[in-house]
Amino acid sequence: MSQILQILTPIQNAIEYVVVFLFENVVSNYGIVIILLTIIVRLVLTPLTLSQTRSMARMQKIQPELKEIQKKYKDDKEKMQQETMAFYKKNNVNPLAGCLPLILQLPVFFALFQALRSPSAIVTNVIGNFTLTGVGHPIGYSQFFIDTANPNFNFLWLNLNERDPYFILVILMVATMFLSTKMTTTDPKQKIITYVLPIVFGFISYRFPSGILVYWVTTNVWSIGQQYLVNKWIRRDGKKDDSKKEEKEELTEEEKTIISRKKKKRRKKK
């Protein structure tokens, strides 16, 4: 585990320098900084995300033909595999292309998670630690010193180092994840994921510090908006493909008519 964290350290440091820059130069509110940081990370990863989405869209378009191949060669697994690979090659589709961008994004997301959960001195030297040590609280004529929450980590009703006491962020996370998963799931067999995955993550995340959930909800909202635009683009391209097919079919019918007329003329001449 320590080796993985060492690998992620340069990415985490880069993310934390962005946090410090935003906090010192844009807005001195750690919650808003997390939201801005999430947007920046998503923008940087947009090329990979779009590549993944395009691959998923291509796979979605060819699903009917793939099902026909699977149905045709269901009794011959080796032939099915050969025909499927030939079909992928013919349509210029790489079935692994949708997974590769996701794998490349994972180190960034893990480093971001670590930066929010356990910020290094890059952040704490500017914003401070999660708690302020040795703050005096008077009792009668004396005073005792305890650790108290750092106000720099306050955001709305939250202390970003502690879990949401009202579980509002957990509910928002589950709802936005459900909608995002529903928009990206195209296989009817995987619909169960739409319901199970958000509940599982909701159960896991209710113990997380609020700062991580602010990031998570922002990410889900971004994904919903992005997927909405992608689905719109897919539908538009689908309509174009359908119109092209119709034009081809019409041309084919015209050609048939011309050919039949020519044949009739030849017969009359004979």
Percentage of residues assigned to helices:
over 70%
Largest sheet: 2 strands, antiparallel
Please state the CA-atom Rg, rounded to the nearest Å: 28 Å
Count of individual domains: 3
User: Which stretches are low in confidence, meaning pLDDT under 50 for 5 or more residues running?
Assistant: 135-145
**Structural class from helices and strands?**
mainly alpha
Query: Looking across the biggest beta sheet, what order are the strands in?
Result: 1-2
The N- to C-terminal Cα distance equals: 88 Å
Give the number of helices: 10
* Beta fraction: 5-15%
β-strand number = 4
Query: Mean pLDDT, nearest integer?
Result: 78
The outline comes out as elongated
> Which sequence of SSEs, written as H and E, runs from N to C?
HHHHHHHEEEEHHH
Describe what you observe in this structure.
The protein has 270 residues and is mainly alpha-helical. Helices cover 73% and strands 8% of the residues. It contains ten helices and four strands. A hairpin with a 2-residue loop joins strand 1 and strand 2. The radius of gyration is 28 Å and the shape is elongated.
